[in-house]
Design brief:
The chain is α/β, with parallel strands linked by helices. The protein has 14 helices and 7 strands. It has a 7-stranded mixed β-sheet, sandwiched between helices. Strand 1, helix 2 and strand 2 form a beta-alpha-beta unit. Helix 1 packs across helix 2, helix 7 crosses helix 8 and helix 7 crosses helix 10. The protein is globular, with a radius of gyration of 21 Å.
Amino acid sequence: MTAPGHVSVLLDQVIAALGPRAGETLVDATFGGGGYSAGLLDAADCCVLALDRDPEAVVRGRDIAARYPGRLTVVEGRFSGLGDAVSRYVAGTVDGVVFDLGVSSFQLDELERGFSFRHDGPLDMRMGGDGRSAADAVNHLTEVELADLIGRLGEERRARAVARAIVAARRAAPVARTSELAEIVRGVVRRSPDGIDPATRTFQALRLWVNDELGELEQGLVAAEAVLREGGRLVVVAFHSLEDRIVKRFLTERSGAAANPSRHMPVATSGPAPTFRVVSRKPLGPTDDEIADNPRARSARLRVAVRTDAPAWRDAA
């Protein structure tokens, strides 16, 4: 059973890809509402170490852990801390690691967290409650810095116009609310034919910047490579192209499938041995039925790889 109000994306596919067995230990690197953790624990007599950088998710996890005595440990932590958490709570390597890179329903639905442009709330977006907020970015970065952030992390083609409008608005008063920022963006970006809100890409960019989500993902994948045993499974659910590109590039490199830089150059034969075998080059997506039941699943992409016996690249260097 998961926390009420939470629907895990691609749950059946994630459990099938991890294939938990009795006696195994798996890591749920994004506990959220506990969907993957509970699914794994229900599927086999295994143990789960779950991480989440959101203290509120860790508190919710205590109730779920009580239903699985001695089998579920929920701790506060980021992807970059995965290796340290495994060292502290697990004796040795683990049998599987899953990353869910989406924002949890709780964070989107809690107005005071400031993640959603659909409802008014303080412009915050911090998953862990510490560090810089979205309001800090909007009110203190220069116009050039804002345009770069929104263009690079939001892939917003009108990034310069959005940045210009934000700077103009904050001359009158600081932009402090999600509704204020959403209206500023909607004033310079047209609604797309598919109906996606014009504020979507700007809010995505700010959330990624505030939480350093792409940097954390890169560090988390390297940490997973280090803690997985031979035959261990790595499962990642991404929700937009920037995340999926990092995962795809990591697995391409680590599986030895990176393209030769030039057909005129000899094929590279040196370098570390592949640490992963990619199960399917094409990512799995949700079914039409899942999208109908949970529209937030529509952009999900799942990639799976199996650890080889080669040393982690940072150990082999």
